Amino acid sequence: MPHPIDLALTASLIGDATRAGMLSRLLEGPARTAGELAREAGISPQTASGHLAKLLEGNLVRVEAQGRHRYYRLASADVARALEALSLLVPTRVATVRVPEPLRFARTCYDHLAGTLGVALAEGLEKRGLLESGEDSYALTPEGTRFVAKWGVDTQTLSQGRRAFARRCLDWSERRAHVGGALGAALAERLFALRWIARRPEGRGVRLTVEGRRGFEKSLGLSWP
Prior knowledge:
Layout (H helix, E strand, L loop, with lengths): L3 H12 L1 H11 L4 E2 H8 L3 H13 L3 E6 L2 E6 L2 H11 L4 H7 L2 H5 L1 E3 L2 E3 H13 L3 E3 L4 E3 L1 H9 L4 H5 L8 E3 L6 E3 L1 H13 L3 E3 L6 E3 L1 H11 L5
Antiparallel strand pairs: 1-3, 2-3, 4-5, 6-7, 8-9, 10-11
Helix pairs in contact: 3-4
InterPro entries: ArsR-like_HTH, HTH_ArsR_DNA-bd_dom, HTH_Metal-responsive_Reg, WH-like_DNA-bd_sf, WH_DNA-bd_sf
GO molecular function: cadmium ion sensor activity; DNA binding; DNA-binding transcription factor activity; lead ion binding
Pfam families: HTH_20
């Protein structure tokens, strides 16, 4: 268990409205410079640098240098999961107002598929006996392993990695679970590669393509108006 002082320090870093906004932006996926984060937050570059220094010290973000630019991103998938989990504590009436419908339908949750589409994928796999749900994780059935292999997902390689194989990630807008972990990331990567889904120009929004509509309906019987 973390020491109460350490827990309070981390909570204070996230609890500041400006830093929470920065973390929310970084949760959308693409790395951002300090200048971009400053403009989006409506603060000066100096103020943004001060906030980012605190987030770096608290191991909530990391920075990468490319030429003259320094790009910030979340420190790890654990940070992303923590931020998503905290989003579940936001009152439903507030969350409903703030979530645009396209983002509610489909978005990335760090590196896996979330929203209505992500939840439907998880539930579609379960209903067909391809995925089994545990208390906080998923497991593929033998038939499920063969099914995702047809999509180009190598489950043997995924299971040998350090990352949890398949997490039940509670979706903050749907209040139901989607597939996270190594399997969730691999599924999202393949769906992008197959062009069943595509990124929206801004943020972490995802759109369902014509190919995706056909593919989901043919393979899992999933359809949307």
